Amino acid sequence: MVPNGEDLRRGRNLSVIELNGITSEPTHIYDPKHGPIFGWLALGRQWRDAFAIGARNGRAGAPTMGLFALLRLWRRHR
User: Fold this and answer.
1) Is there a contact between 14 and 7 (Cβ–Cβ < 8 Å)?
2) Domain boundaries, the chain
3) DSSP category for residue 66
């Protein structure tokens, strides 16, 4: 939150009210004027973009995790 545009431009009086990651759902998908297909499409675009960013980061040298390592982590978590 920020009181006005000038404070935003100057980076003053800012308050973080929520911090979300890629697994967060965009709240606009729950707007009653839209049906479920609208929400599903929005989530599909979100995950398409997330996978594209991950692939690009991997090609740029960022460490990646293989399927079996992911499954081991998931199993340990459960």
Assistant:
1) yes
2) 25-77
3) -
The residues, ordered by sequence, that sit 6+ positions from 9 with a Cβ below 8 Å of its Cβ are none
Q: Which two tokens stand for residue 36?
A: 């479920």
pTM above 0.85, yes or no: no
Q: Which tens digit of pLDDT belongs to each residue from 37-76?
A: 999 999 999 999 999 999 999 999 999 999 999 999 999 9
Q: Which two tokens stand for residue 65?
A: 């995790």
Closest-CA residue to 24 (of 8, 46, 40, 5) = 46
Structure confidence at residue 77 (pLDDT)? 92
Q: Which amino acid is at 6?
A: E
62: three-class secondary structure by DSSP: coil
